[in-house]
């Protein structure tokens, strides 16, 4: 796809300084710009690159005044970073603007879908599936019986959505995500073996939830596993049965949350965090990467370590951890001297 400077300026409500007909077909960092690419300058420490970049078009703030001759065409906007982000969103919308049903697919007679629907080849839609408007489902996606999907949802190749799941408006589900797999429910029997506990609940994703590639969200034993609106999950995360995650909480990669734990709103949870089951984590909690959470957490706490401590206490204690061998040596010397 090619866009001219004048077309881009129209999208961003900007002003062209240079050749309005010059076109671009790809994006680049300002220091890596080549002919045919579009870049931006927002951070002043990168200003020197604008005089050497080979990018055809550069988005800059309106107050930018070049001190040397430029070879790049400028588009001046109120906020270069926000405008570039807006352009990336527009680019993605255009790139993914597919409509129609490819072949071969399996589409149950009782399945229904709305306007501007795209279904990629080798996908499967089960009985009583209900899909809203402007939904894009890429190839090799499985959607089980009685699944409901809202408007403006994007489901990438290879995702699996098990029966009874509910996906809200504006959700994004990346490749290899599994939604609605059985929760890890087993009970020991008299023979010393484990019998499976039927997992009869479902998964609910509220609006504007995004699920990263390779993440699994288990269905509830009874009731629902729920991700509230605006939740963002990174790649390769495990969310167990009956977990509830509050609005606008963000969780980084390789974190695991055990069953029936409740996480509050606006939390930030780092990568490789382990959270035990049947606890409650409050709102606005901050958990550093690789922490182990073994207790309920109050609103606003900041935690680090395994088992996790208050963030400030952990940093104070870490000073002693680093000097532990020296402290042991001093104790040994004192004991020797006392012995003498």
UniProtKB/TrEMBL annotation:
UniProt pathway annotation: Bacterial outer membrane biogenesis; LPS lipid A biosynthesis
Record-level Gene Ontology MF annotations: N-acyltransferase activity; UDP-3-O-[(3R)-3-hydroxyacyl]-glucosamine N-acyltransferase activity
Pfam families on file: Hexapep (PF00132), LpxD (PF04613)
EC number: 2.3.1.191
Record bears the keyword Nucleus: no
GO cellular component, one term: membrane
Superkingdom of the organism of origin: Bacteria
Keyword vocabulary terms for this entry: Acyltransferase, Lipid A biosynthesis, Lipid biosynthesis, Lipid metabolism, Repeat, Transferase
UniProt-annotated catalytic positions: 241
A GO biological process held by the record: lipid A biosynthetic process
Catalytic reaction(s) noted: a UDP-3-O-[(3R)-3-hydroxyacyl]-alpha-D-glucosamine + a (3R)-hydroxyacyl-[ACP] = a UDP-2-N,3-O-bis[(3R)-3-hydroxyacyl]-alpha-D-glucosamine + holo-[ACP] + H(+)
Domain UDP-3-O-[3-hydroxymyristoyl] glucosamine N-acyltransferase non-repeat region: 22-89
Described purpose of this protein according to its UniProt entry: Catalyzes the N-acylation of UDP-3-O-acylglucosamine using 3-hydroxyacyl-ACP as the acyl donor. Is involved in the biosynthesis of lipid A, a phosphorylated glycolipid that anchors the lipopolysaccharide to the outer membrane of the cell.
Quaternary structure and interacting proteins, as annotated: Homotrimer.
Family of the protein in this entry: Belongs to the transferase hexapeptide repeat family. LpxD subfamily.
HAMAP family: LpxD (MF_00523)
The protein's name: UDP-3-O-acylglucosamine N-acyltransferase
Native organism: Muriicola soli
Native organism taxonomy: Bacteria, Pseudomonadati, Bacteroidota, Flavobacteriia, Flavobacteriales
